[in-house]
Specification:
By secondary structure, this protein is an alpha/beta fold. The protein has a single domain, classed as 3-Layer(aba) Sandwich (Rossmann fold), CATH 3.40.50.2020. The protein is built from 3 helices and 9 strands, in the order βαβαβββαββββ. Strand 5, helix 3 and strand 6 form a beta-alpha-beta unit. The longest helix has 18 residues. The two termini are 23 Å apart. The structure holds inosinic acid and magnesium ion.
Length: 184
Amino acid sequence: MKNDIGEILISEIEIKNSVSVLAQKLAVDYKNNNLTIIGVLNGSLVFLSDLIRQIPFPVKIDTIRANTYAGASTFPKAETEIIHNIDIDVKNEHVLIVDDILDTGKTLSKIIQMITKHDPLSIKVCVLLNKTARRESEIVPDYCCFEIEDKFVVGYGLDFDNRYRNLPYVAVLKDDIMITPETL
Ligand code: IMP
Ligand code: MG
């Protein structure tokens, strides 16, 4: 797997430190509040599991799943579909949506729309990475660990064609790995 990596953009230790700082901030901001954290599958898996274990009070956890990419593609599909919705009743809850990356914003806009229908007390967005270059909606993350430039990255939950989520850092793949029939 290491042979496929072009450049490490964010190291394991940088991620660890930033996630700790973020968890401390959330601990202050949501103190004395009912907090439900909703992870966006599959990309948020690693970030979510590290983050929630550093929050010092009981939170409810649920997941939602959206489909933005078709197979081995680095370009989002025209329409984002919600393919698995939340089960928890969030009516008296403050909701924090956690995702791996905010890119065009299509996925999180659709998810915010969907969760708004469940009438929570508040909705905020927390992402590991913010990539503003391809943004199509006006969404701005309330919490974000790193700003990144317009590169397709993998690792720490982020995938290319469902691989590389298990890398402990965020990296760019070598060019020849990203060449597939769909990206040509
Ligand atoms: P958006 O809807 O364009 O904001 O994209 C959000 C989703 O696209 C994220 O949850 C990721 O799963 C995926 N995505 C966007 N950029 C990247 C990237 O650089 N690497 C891997 N996945 C990405
Ligand atoms: Mg995702």
